[in-house]
Amino acid sequence: MRVPKLAVWKFASCDxxxxxxxxxxxxxxxxxxxxxxxxxxxxSKAVIKGPxxxxxxxxxxxxxxxxxxxxxxxxxxxxxxxxxxxxxxxGIQALRxxxxxxxxxxxxxxxxxxxxxxDHSTPISDHVNVDLELxxxxxxxxxxxxxxxxxxxxKKPNIHSYSVCMECKRKGNVCILVSNNIPCLGPVTxxxxxAICPSYNRGCYSCFGPHESPNIKSLSNKFRDIGMDDSSxxxxxxxxxxxxxxxxxxxxxxx
Amino acid sequence: MNExxxxxxxxxxxxxxxxxxxxxxxISDNEVKDVKLKIYEPPRxxxxxxxxxxxxxxxxxxxxxxxxxxxxxxxxxxxxxxxAAKISIKGMIRELRRLIYCGEWVESxxxxxxxxxxxxxxxxNNAIELAKAHPTIVKDGLFxxxxxxxxxxLLGGREVHPINARVGGFYKVPKEEELRSIIDKIEAARxxxxxxxxxxTKLEYYEFERDYEFIGLRNEDEYPFNEGRIxxxxxxxxxxxxxxxxxxxxxxxxxxxxxxxxxxxxxxxVGPMARYNLNFxxxxxxxKSIAREIGLEYCKNPFxxxxxxSIEILYAFTEALRIIEHYKMPDEPYVDFVVRDARGYGCxxxxxxxxxxxxxINEDGIINEARIIPPTSQNQKIIEEDLYHFVxxxxxxxDNKLIWRCEQAIRNYDPCISCATHFLNAKIERE
Lengths: 255, 431
Hints:
- The structure holds two protein chains of two kinds.
- By secondary structure, chain A is of the alpha/beta class.
- Chain A has two domains: about 150 residues, Rossmann fold (3-Layer(aba) Sandwich); about 70 residues, no CATH class.
- By secondary structure, chain B is α+β, with helices and mostly antiparallel strands.
- Chain B has one domain: Cytochrome-c3 Hydrogenase, chain B, CATH 1.10.645.
- In chain B, a hairpin with a 2-residue loop joins strand 10 and strand 11.
- In chain B, helix 3 packs antiparallel against helix 4, helix 4 runs antiparallel to helix 14 and helix 8 runs antiparallel to helix 12.
- At the A-B interface, helix 1, helix 2, helix 5 and helix 9 of A face helix 1, helix 4, helix 5 and helix 6 of B.
């Protein structure tokens, strides 16, 4: 078999998800033997033309030019994977979607006329067909490796869609929400991090975003029972995955 | 105009930098007419959406400005909040903060030294090609990087966007034996680091020195991470809260990153070289002796910043071992308090240089205003000046070589464009 060509693309993001590839210190060089890293600007000057067998896309769409670029990338890619909270839900920068962008620009920049940006930060799937979404802020580097090696071995990647609670129970953690009244988004959040926050005595803040069928209402009620006010409840969903389909419905006034 | 005197170059995407940027150079009649480092990474408006968030959310939110140096953002915001509350965290919590920062310096510097910068010196496109010709240095570099990441993960829960730091301390502190479990690995990585420093010293370096104003933190008796006065080699000596009185940010049309300059003197230099030159006397004897062995007591050549970063890796391992060896698990992982109706300032030494945060907090503990000035926006002007002087000196080089060397000159600063707009694409126009 010909060596498959891998490309890594970036839109609005912190670079943390593509960095996860370079953080695979034990596996990176063997991975580079199995795939041809054809486009990965953060790691290499060499650029090989498409089409690409597998494209990893990091970041959210925030400019007109981004929209043109993602469409060109889709055309050039056989298998396209959106990686991370920005690419799968619009990321932290999607907080603009709930505010006035003009005001945002004037807060940060002295010359607003120099800034070109869209009023919404949107996930890749809003613009092109995505073959797989890998959630997380950042993605788990082992899940990323699983996605690439599954592609190389022509199998379905083993990525679970249950909640963080499953991982937390498996680790034998005592539930911090039930026993310590610490607000925890674990029940509505997709697994993949191995329940790190509860393991460090803090509530999950849903950096992996919602799982398939989260019961937001029920969790909000629980938060209210333990004394959180509406604005705190809304803020807890308005973090790194605020514009995911499940979380964006929480309105400005009441959770 | 004579065609032989006029050349046009374009390099639109700079590689091996964090984020998206471009370089533009205009050469006319063999004179440099214009140099621009363009940052076109789209803005993400952190300072805007921080308004209305609770003070305690700033560390996790600002960490997302940069996936390479999240600890820096966490530490600057945490110290700003503690400054607003007029508290100062001492003892083992303070030591653990230094330790997690050691981990971040190692992983960030090692990424740059071995995977992003080193390929330039030997003419390779990337670390993978380099690894085929020089497997030992790349494998050692990856091992060093990995141990840095392990320090971050052990204390922070994971490498990228760790979850354990909070205003007041940590959510959970490690037991003594948990920290001691990585001593052997740190010692092995430190020894590989010394081999790497000696190997890197034999590289060919461009002669390129300028009279820079270096700015960094300095405190009483240690190499700086989280606190100190902001000082320079040209007389600046101010408190963190005086930062904005002395340094101003400007918005230029071609860049989505604001340009910072000293009110009185213009461009200045932050990052490992600045920190090192200002604080060499604060390094432990052992690290100084290795630095003297390779003749690097003071460095004015940014092409040699790869050596400075390597010495800082050695320092970070040495400091990590010191902290772990005398660590005693504190009784409480954090000090609990609420920030109300106050302004707070924080400035810490991110891997790429000083990172300044200021917050105004209202009586409910909600952020009214936030200001964040990352190291790369402070270095933009000095990078442009370096390019100007470098091109002037090497104008006879063929285009492809000149472009590559200019890209290398930019990479000398390990620019993080994700931070500054929070990229690189090089373009030379010869007329």
